[in-house]
Amino acid sequence: MMKQILVTGGTGYIGSHTVVELQNKGYEVVIVDDLSNSEKDVVDRIEKISGIRPIFEELDLVDAAGTDKMFQKYSNLEAVIHFAAFKAVGESVQEPLRYYQNNLVSLINLLNCMRKYKVQNMVFSSSCTVYGQPESLPVTENAPVQPAESPYGNTKQICEEILRDSVKAYPEIKAIALRYFNPVGAHKSALIGELPKGVPQNLVPFITQTAIGLRDQLSVFGSDYNTVDGSAVRDYIHVVDLAQAHIIAAERLLEGRNEENYEFFNLGTGTGSSVLQVINAFEEANGLPVKYKIVDRREGDVEQIWADTTIANEVLGWKANRGLDDMMSSAWAWEKNLREGDC
């Protein structure tokens, strides 16, 4: 019998890629998503890639009663991979209460149901934002958690605290938090990728939408950071590498190989790239110019951050394998396929 795994936010960007990787490894997937930042036809695209249609439930996890009914319906769940959250740094500064309600309450409802229905394993989608502006680089798991630079980052910090306290109080529950850096790129099929609703909040979809003519130009937030070219630096990681890390983490829990009931790992490439370097990489990979302008810094952004991935490589047994060229070429293939209506 196939092991059944719940993927919250499974029609979203990282979630959809993780569903594909889970199905490729023989797991039965139940997706729950409220479609607030994704489209239902992603389920069709997942089926085209893997040949398997995942189970789909449209549900807002802030709804405690609805979440309970969903767990009742799927009584064979063995793990939860929890992506569902609001995730835009800038938007969180403008709408903090919306972010706190959604991101915290959904996790609490899931954990309550996991206890009630004896689902023991959770992989949590965390973020490098928990480190704030780090004191030293690259960032290791031993780096202190700094005051968050945004409400979004603070929700990830609080969610990790909720997890840490919960597994201590309820030792039947085990959790791994994956603190990842900046996922970009798309599946090689170009059938799934990053699809923000409205104006993109992240760099790469704004690049691809500008290149294809949907946006007049890209705004680069800040040119006076203490970095190689004055623009902010991030650790960009291919979304498929990231998806595969979630399967490795889930299997670590399912097979009882975790060393503690609560573990956390940094996921990145270990290399920082500036915004201007990413724009240049896109232009070189795809032979296209991208119009951009320099504007003021954006509230909530940190200056630079990239990962030390040693512990993820050695303890988790995972490593990022795809480079910036692959990230940029796959993102562009996805954008073109999306606009041409072939998927």
UniProtKB/TrEMBL annotation:
<comment type="pathway">
    <text>Carbohydrate metabolism; galactose metabolism.</text>
</comment>
<comment type="similarity">
    <text>Belongs to the NAD(P)-dependent epimerase/dehydratase family.</text>
</comment>
<dbReference type="InterPro" id="IPR036291">
    <property type="entry name" value="NAD(P)-bd_dom_sf"/>
</dbReference>
<keyword id="KW-0520">NAD</keyword>
<dbReference type="GO" id="GO:0006012">
    <property type="term" value="P:galactose metabolic process"/>
</dbReference>
<dbReference type="GO" id="GO:0005829">
    <property type="term" value="C:cytosol"/>
</dbReference>
<dbReference type="InterPro" id="IPR016040">
    <property type="entry name" value="NAD(P)-bd_dom"/>
</dbReference>
<feature type="domain" description="NAD(P)-binding">
    <location>
        <begin position="6"/>
        <end position="329"/>
    </location>
</feature>
<keyword id="KW-0119">Carbohydrate metabolism</keyword>
<protein>
    <recommendedName>
        <fullName>UDP-glucose 4-epimerase</fullName>
        <ecNumber>5.1.3.2</ecNumber>
    </recommendedName>
</protein>
<dbReference type="GO" id="GO:0003978">
    <property type="term" value="F:UDP-glucose 4-epimerase activity"/>
</dbReference>
<dbReference type="InterPro" id="IPR005886">
    <property type="entry name" value="UDP_G4E"/>
</dbReference>
<keyword id="KW-0413">Isomerase</keyword>
<dbReference type="Pfam" id="PF16363">
    <property type="entry name" value="GDP_Man_Dehyd"/>
</dbReference>
<comment type="subunit">
    <text>Homodimer.</text>
</comment>
